[in-house]
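Why should sequence recovery work at all? Because a backbone constrains its sequence more than one might expect. Tight turns favour small or flexible residues, buried strands favour hydrophobic ones, and helices have their own preferences. The token representation captures these environments compactly. In the example below, the structure is given first.
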């Protein structure tokens, strides 16, 4: 036993607190060589291996009773290649640190999600995405990957090197190996102008296709129990730089979106009957605003109110009908929903287990405040989403299994074939992967 390992009797919990695990050992390798030793030793000891990032997934994709690998020491940028316009980054690097480091280099990812607490490997392995008419998920921006496989091999893959592994591993669910480094395509830093504006539900749904077509990045939030939405349109801009004012930005992003929203959620959880009235007030609290800044300051937002989440990707043409059905379900049910419903889009991509694999997609995400019983709401939503051939986000709550998912993903068999070859003994398996991939 070296300093890389630590025996533990402690319980690991994810960010939302809905998943726990009691690993036999925790490892914090400081290099790829040390990680190889961890993987080989675990295999010799008959223990499974699971890497864990910041625990921002709501599923048990990282849970294990074997060896839990923390990537805290595998961080930082390995290389910036300005000729190829790529950056290679260690897998444990949090997205917020990557974004800040790229900005200092005058570079940026093309698109990103709105939460930046995740590690690079955790975010890409579960298919984290933002919204975009032409630009896709974070995983779709990957140009090469490095991972340690079950036999301790350090395997590098790209379009030209082990392309079958590359097609699967960009969203690998931790099933193919432990990702150690990711190479992303980047571009010179640019400016985005964000336009946030309240809009009626009926108008957003009627104009949805037009709003998507006219904007590089469009998303909206519908507040259940109301007919109100808040929309956000992000488009590239020639400038000038015009970030939110310090006071105004604090009021919108911290006081209203986090501080008062936290209070509202706490009241709603304690007294569910107050939720419809609170929703009406909340949906009217955010005013229209326009600002211009570098990408990571526009795409991302602080999220301090903890929640649980389910999200499904649908064929984009089905989004409005599904959302209207969701609204009708909430209106006729006794459910009291304190969190807004989020709607985003993504173009089709070529990643085997991407939720946008082979089809233009729209995402409908539902949330509830942490600690609120979510079974009835999420079950009703899932019933609607699966009726439209929905694909669940790999890192968010769902009940689908391999039987359903094999039919939802045309390239599902391609992924499992790569898994069979790289991890025939299921060193990286856990209960979640057995459910969604089979065994």
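From this structural description, the recovered sequence reads:
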């Amino acid at each position: 036993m070296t300093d890389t390992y630590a025996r533990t009797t402690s319980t690991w919990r994810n960010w939302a607190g809905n998943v726990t695990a009691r690993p036999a050992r925790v490892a914090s390798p400081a290099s790829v060589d040390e990680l190889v030793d961890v993987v080989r030793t675990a295999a010799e000891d008959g223990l499974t291996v699971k890497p864990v990032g910041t625990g921002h997934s709501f599923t048990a994709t990282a849970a294990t009773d074997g060896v839990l690998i923390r990537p805290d020491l595998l961080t930082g940028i390995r290389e910036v290649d300005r000729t190829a316009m790529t950056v290679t980054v260690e897998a444990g690097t949090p997205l917020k640190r990557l974004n800040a480091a790229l900005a200092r280099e005058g570079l940026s990812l093309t698109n990103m999600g709105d939460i930046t607490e995740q590690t690079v490997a955790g975010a890409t392995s579960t298919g984290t995405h933002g919204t975009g008419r032409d630009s896709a998920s974070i995983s779709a921006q990957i140009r090469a990957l490095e991972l340690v496989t079950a036999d301790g091999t350090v395997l590098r893959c790209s379009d030209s090197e082990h392309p079958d592994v590359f097609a699967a591993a960009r969203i690998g669910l931790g099933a193919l190996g432990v990702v150690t480094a990711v190479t992303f395509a980047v571009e010179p830093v640019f400016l985005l102008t964000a336009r946030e504006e309240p809009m009626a539900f009926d108008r957003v749904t009627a104009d949805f296709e037009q709003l998507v077509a006219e904007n590089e990045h469009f998303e909206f939030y519908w507040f259940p129990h109301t007919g109100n939405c808040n929309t956000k349109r992000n488009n590239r801009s020639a400038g000038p730089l015009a970030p939110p004012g310090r006071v105004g930005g604090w009021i919108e992003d911290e006081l209203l979106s986090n501080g008062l929203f936290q209070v509202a959620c706490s009241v709603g959880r304690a007294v569910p009957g107050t939720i419809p009235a609170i929703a009406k007030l909340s949906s009217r609290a955010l005013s229209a605003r326009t600002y211009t800044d570098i990408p990571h300051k526009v795409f991302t937002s602080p999220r301090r109110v903890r929640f649980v989440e389910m999200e499904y990707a649908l064929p984009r043409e089905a989004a409005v009908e599904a959302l209207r059905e969701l609204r009708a379900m909430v209106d006729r049910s006794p459910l009291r929903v304190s969190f807004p419903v989020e709607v985003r889009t993504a173009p089709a991509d070529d990643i085997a287990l991407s939720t946008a694999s082979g089809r233009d997609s729209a995402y409908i995400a539902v949330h509830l405040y942490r600690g609120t019983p979510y079974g009835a709401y999420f079950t009703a939503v899932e019933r609607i989403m699966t009726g439209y051939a929905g694909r669940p986000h790999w890192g968010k709550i769902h009940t689908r299994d391999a039987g359903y998912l094999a039919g939802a993903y045309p390239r599902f068999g391609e992924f499992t074939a790569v898994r069979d070859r790289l991890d025939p003994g299921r060193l990286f398996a856990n209960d979640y992967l057995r459910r969604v991939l089979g065994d």
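A few observations help interpret the result. The longest strand covers residues 191-200.
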